[in-house]
Design goal:
Blueprint lengths: L6 E6 L7 H11 L1 E5 L7 H8 L5 E3 L15 H8 L4 E6 L10 H18 L2 E6 L4 H11 L5 E6 L5 H10 L2 E4 L7 H9 L5 E3 L7 E2 L2 E2 L5 H12 L3 H18 L10
Parallel strand pairs: 1-2, 2-3, 4-5, 5-6, 6-7, 7-8
Antiparallel strand pairs: 9-10
The structure holds zinc ion.
Zinc ion binds next to loops.
Length: 260
């Protein structure tokens, strides 16, 4: 049976919504494949329980770089739970002023995540890289190979040169609508190879028309991307769907996910 998918949200904090169950039901109703990221491994059990009966929402195990310092002991739990989850996130590095101080610890935690992913293989990571794009790429090159780990750089805001280099290494890029309001985001979208483009919301941390964004908002992203890339909307939809299917197949999952 062919399942119609209307969109892909590769980075959504489902567990930070006031009613995660309702949001998941909404994704199922609207056929939006959604990667439910977490910021601490302690959220994994709950996240997995919520998503268990969903056909469209997939849980991911994560440890956010902003929490890496305070929760560094939880890396052991991340490593343990990664065995159960082909999707990992939110992980990465944050070099912005409030977090720059903890970069050495963040790097230690991120390296261990990457090493585990490399050992396990068939792991898809959704990666935060604010003000640390080069460091993230260096860590990926040091610890992983594209045959075993597929990195998605989420809300990438570093230079186009770094992005192109990362794409050459095998990185994908999940684009949210906030990136479309910055010149840097627009040049990034125009410069990346089409076969590396994905969509996301980073909800509930982004807003659309004065309300919190939700996974179903990714459908509107396709026409914006098409416009920027000078392609017909249908063609853009076909490209993003193909990319998304490749990423899901890399992790060994197919739609629907109900057999989990
Ligand atoms: Zn996030």
């Amino acid at each position: 049976m062919t399942i119609v998918v209307n969109g892909f949200d590769f980075h959504c904090h489902v567990d930070l919504f006031p009613d995660p169950a309702a949001l998941i039901a909404d994704c199922d109703r609207n056929h939006i494949v959604t990667l439910a990221v977490t910021t601490t491994p302690k959220a994994w059990t709950q996240n997995r329980r919520w998503t268990k009966r969903s056909n469209f929402v997939i849980p991911a195990i994560g440890l956010h770089p902003e929490l890496a310092d305070q929760r560094r002991a939880e890396i052991a739990l991340v490593e343990q739970l990664m065995a159960e989850s082909p999707f990992v996130g939110e992980v990465g590095l944050d070099g912005s002023p409030p977090h720059r101080r903890t970069l050495p610890i963040q790097k230690e935690v991120f390296s261990r995540v990457l090493q585990s992913a490399q050992t396990l293989g068939a792991r898809v990571l959704t990666i935060h890289s604010r003000r640390a794009g080069r460091e993230v790429l260096a860590s990926l090159v040091e610890h992983t190979t594209p045959e075993r780990v597929l990195p998605i750089l989420h809300w990438f805001s570093d230079s186009v040169a770094t992005a192109v280099e990362a794409a050459r290494f095998g990185c994908y890029f999940s684009i949210n609508h906030r990136m479309l309001s910055a010149d840097s985001g627009i040049s990034l979208i125009k410069s990346l190879p089409a076969d590396r483009l994905l969509t996301e919301t980073d909800a509930p941390f982004t807003e659309i028309e004065n309300r919190k964004s939700e996974p179903r908002d990714v459908t509107a992203m396709i026409s914006r991307l098409a416009q920027l890339r000078n392609l017909p909307v249908e063609e853009m939809k076909r490209i993003v769907t193909g990319n998304a299917e490749h990423v899901l197949a890399f992790a060994g999952v197919s739609i629907p996910f109900s057999d989990r």
